[in-house]
Amino acid sequence: MVDRNGWEEDASVPTGSPHSPPASFVEQANVTNEAIYEEFEERWPDCWERAADLLSWDRPYETVLEDGNAPFYEWFTGGELNASYNCLDRHLEAGRKTHAAIRWEGKRGERETYTYQDLATAVNEFAAALRELGVEEDDVVTLYLPMIPELPIAMLACARIGAPHSVVFAGLSADALATRMEAADSEYLVTCDGYYRRGDAFNQKSKVDNARITLEQDVETVVVDRLGEDLPHVLGDGEYDYDDLVERHAGETVEPVSRDAEDMLFLMYTSGTTGEPKGVVHTTGGYLAHVAWTTRSVLDVKPEDTYWCAADIGWITGHSYIVYGPLALGTTTVMYEGTPDYPDRDRLWEIVDRNAVDVFYTAPTAIRAFMKWGEEYPAQHDLSSLRLLGTVGEAISSRPWNWYREHIGGGGCPIVDTWWQTETGAITISTLPGIDEMKPGSAGPPLPGIDARVVDAEGADVDPGETGYLTIAQPWPGMARTLYDGDDQYRTEYWDQFSDPDHDRWWYFSGDAATVDEDGYITVLGRVDDVINVSGRRLSTMEIESVIADVDGVVEAAVVGRSSDIEDTEIYAYVSTEGDCEPDETVRESITESIEAAIGSIARPEVVIFTPELPKTRSGKIMRRLLEDVANDNQLGDTSALRNPEIVGEIQAEIRQE
Ligand code: PRX
C-alpha cells in the first residue's frame, strides 16, 4: 500500500507495532547484554560505578551515593575531577590530538573543524583570559552566545578553572538575560556583537546593553566579533574583544582545577511554575558520569563516530549531548548554527551526507516539520551513514516515528525516544537500542538503575494503560542537586508531592503525566497541567493530540480546555495540516471519528481550528497555555518569547469565525 505521501507502508506492520533492533545494529552496539537491567537492580547504587568509570578522576571517590540528607543526595563523594580535563586533555594523552572534536557548520555555509588539540588550545587560552578578567573558582559566568565554536570553548574554559557557567539561550530577550544574571549574581558575561538570521545581521549586543543597564552589579563583558563589517560595534567600559583577549594569552596553558564531584559544573535556568526562572544546579561528577554513560549506552556513540545532536547548546539537550557527553567520550560532535530550512529544506540532510554522520538526535517538532516538507528533501541525499536516530523533548506519535525511521533512517535504523528533563540532567527513560524492542510512540522502559514509576495520587502503581504521575523513586547521578539559592523551592517543586519523610521515602516528581504498559514501557503524555477534566473524566490533552496527529494529512495538533458555564470543559483542538492537504470537512470528520474510536466520544472536540502553524517557544515547545487563553478569550500574556508570534492573531481571527 502506498500512502498519501507516496511511501510504501508495510501492510504487515501496522503503525505503532513494535520493532526489534536490526541484527546488524546489535552486533556492533555498545551495550547488548540484557543482564544489565538485573545487574543494576541487584548492585544498586554501586552499579553506577560503570558510569563513573568512564571518567578520569584526579582523586577516586569513596562513596557512590551519600543519602543521609535526602533529597539533597551526593554522588561519588570524596572524588575529584575536572570536566574540561575529561573532555580534552585525556584524549590528547591517549594520542588523539588530531582527531576531530567539533565540526562546526555556520549559517553562511562556513565550515570549521577543531581537532582535540585545536579545541584544547582554544580552551586553555580563553581560560587564561577569564582569569585575567578576575574570574575565580565558583564565580558564575553567563554565556549568551549563538551556536558558534566560542560557546563550547567558553563552557570548557569555565569548567577548567572551576567557574560554573550559566548559558542563556541567545534568542532570549534582554529582560530574560538580566533576570538570570541577577538571580545568579553573575558578574561575567561572554556574548557577541550579533549573528545572522536567515542571512541578515541581527544585533545581539544591543540586547546586552539593555540588560546591563538594569543590572546592579558591574559586569565584565567579553564580546565575540561574529559579524565583522556587517555590523560594526563599539566596546565600552568593562567590555573586551574576545580575539584581543585570547591573543594576549596565545599558547598559554592553564592547569585544570580539581573539583569535588559535588561542585557545581553549571547552572541552567528553566521555566518554573511561578513564572520565575529556576536555576537548576548540576554537578561535576554525577552529571558528567551520567551524560557520558547515556551517550554511550543509549546513543551508542563510539569515539570514531561523527555524531550530531541538532539542538541548541542554549538548552540542556545541547549541554549534555552536543558538548559534555560526546566530548567526554572523545567522539566528533557536529555543531550546526543554522535552521533546518535555510538556504533550503534539505540543509540537514546535506550536512549528514557530507559529514557521513553516524548518529543523529533531534526533536519531534523538527521531525513533524520534515514530514510536512516532504520526503523529497532527504531523498536528495545519501543518508546511509546513519546507524541510529534519537528524539527528545516531547512525545512523538507513531506516524512521525515511522516517517523518521523510513525516510531518514532508511528503514533500518533503530530509534531511541529519550525522556528526560533539564532537572534529570541526562536521559532516564529510553530503550537501550542494542537490547530492547522499540514501540513507536512510547519512550520505553526506565534505563537500568532508574526507578521510574507511574503512580496515582497516593503513590500506588497504576494499572497498565491508566494515566498516572511520572515519578522516580530512587536518586540517580545526573539529577539536579538543588535550585540556585532555593533549597526550599527545590523540595516544594519536586519532592513534596510524593515523598513521605516520616518513612524516609523520597520520590522525585517530574511534573509529567504518563501511562505504562504490561511490558513496563512508559508513554509520557505531557505535563500534568495539560490534563483536562471533561464531565468528571480526566483526559490527557497529549493523548487526544496524538490521535489527531495520526490522521492522514495532519502534521500536529494542540488540544486545550475551554471552561464553559453551561457544561464543564469543552475541548478545543488546534490542528495544522500538511502542505498539500486542504483542511476541509473531510479532515475534520476524520479527526472526530478517530478520537471517538481511540478514546471515546467524551474526548470529541467541540471546536477544531485549522492553522498553518502552532505557536511555539524558541525551544520548539507548543505554547498550550497561550492557546488555552485564546480559547477562553482571556487576556493574552507576553508573546515575545514565541518563535512565531504572528500566528496568534491569525488563530484568534479563525476562532471568531467559528
Ligand atoms: O514533558 C516532558 C518533555 O519535556 C519536558 C522536559 O523539558 P526540558 O526540561 O526543556 O528538557 C527537554 C530536553 C530533555 C519533560 O518533562 N519530554 C522530554 N522528552 C520527552 C518528553 N515528553 C515525551 N517524550 C519524550 N521523549
UniProtKB/TrEMBL annotation:
* EC top class named in words: ligase
Domain (AMP-binding enzyme C-terminal) spans 543-621
Q: One GO BP annotation here?
A: acetyl-CoA biosynthetic process from acetate
All copies of the AMP-dependent synthetase/ligase domain together span 98-481
PROSITE patterns linked: AMP_BINDING
Any Pfam family hit: ACAS_N
Q: What UniProt keywords apply to this chain's record, in alphabetical order?
A: ATP-binding, Ligase, Nucleotide-binding
* Domain Acetyl-coenzyme A synthetase N-terminal, residue spans: 34-87
Checking SUPFAM superfamilies in the record gives: Acetyl-CoA synthetase-like
As recorded in UniProt, its EC number(s) are 6.2.1.1
Region: Disordered, residue numbers: 1-24
* GO molecular function (one): acetate-CoA ligase activity
The secretion signal range is none
* Superkingdom as given in the UniProt entry: Archaea
Protein family: Belongs to the ATP-dependent AMP-binding enzyme family.
Q: Under which name does UniProt file this protein?
A: Acetate--CoA ligase
Say which species the protein is native to: Natronococcus pandeyae
Gene (name only): acs
